[in-house]
Amino acid sequence: MNILITSGGTEEAIDGVRCITNSSTGRTGAAIAGYFSERGADVLLLRAEKAAGAPQGVTERRYRSYADLAAALKKILGAEKWDAVIHLAAVSDYTVAAVEVDGNPFSPGGPGKIAGGRDVKITLKPTAKILDSLRSWSSNPGLVVVGFKLTDGASPGRTGRRGCGHLSPERGGLCRTQRLSRYERKTASRNPPESRRYSETSGNQ
Questions:
Q1: CB under 8 Å to 189, separation ≥6 — which residues?
Q2: Residue 115 backbone dihedrals phi, psi, to 5 degrees
Q3: What is the sign, positive or negative, of the torsion defined by CA atoms of 11, 22, 115, 101?
Q4: pLDDT of residue 174
Q5: What separation in angstroms does the CA of 141 have from each of 58, 121, 134?
């Protein structure tokens, strides 16, 4: 069985050193990759640059931004036959469309660093849902897609529909949703408030 797993969080560049990101660690993706590898599956872990690395025996590739991840998935899924994709990556819902510094345009991502004390305006634009495109990018029409999603403020029924997009068991898809309020309570019981982090342990993609 060939399994592709994504993990970690995307980074959307503002200048050469700053970015918009999230606190996904990638540890869950690495652990799941190791689990399937130990049981004989051929596993590729596509992880963020700062996410937990692949365990022994698992091949890995890296991405940084939303665009990097989308391009890599489209290429990998189209080039080889994968039986399943487990999509744990915490993908940004927005990317940087434009940056202005003191009223002057600044190219997102640099080069260089915006000096302190400047008036900075950042315009964001929404990104397309990668989860909804995985099967169409795949050379295997029977691809199984497993998605994870962290949501906030919705009832369980609405959370599932909003978070999972087009995934359903009838269409070869599975989705695990986690409400932020519930995850905050779990995290607070383990960590003091000043060091609280929201990892992908319970699924925040």
A1: none
A2: -65, 150
A3: positive
A4: 73
A5: 25, 44, 10
